[in-house]
Amino acid sequence: MQDEESCVRRVGDEVAVCVRVQPRASRNEVLEVRNGRLLVRTTAAPADGKANKAVIRLLARFLDVAPSRIRIVRGQTQRNKELRISGPIELPLAIVPGRAANGL
Length: 104
What we know:
This protein is mainly beta and 104 residues long. The chain contains one helix and six strands, in the order ββββαββ.
């Protein structure tokens, strides 16, 4: 079930995405928006930045952008993270409830 609260916002020339990471999951997947955060599951362990790198790769694939355009700006050692995506992007409507995908 999706929340009506959006997990994305425009910050200057970037798009901020709030995520909740579940490390050591049974599979790698981007799920749904819950409690204002995009739920991302990764099989990677939260050690030596492995889970963070896996989350960036998963989101890059999900959003069809280069991983180099995504960076973690908050929550490097926590499950709740804020990521920034640089450049133009068309977001899936599933993570931007009530808004058109273009324009963010």
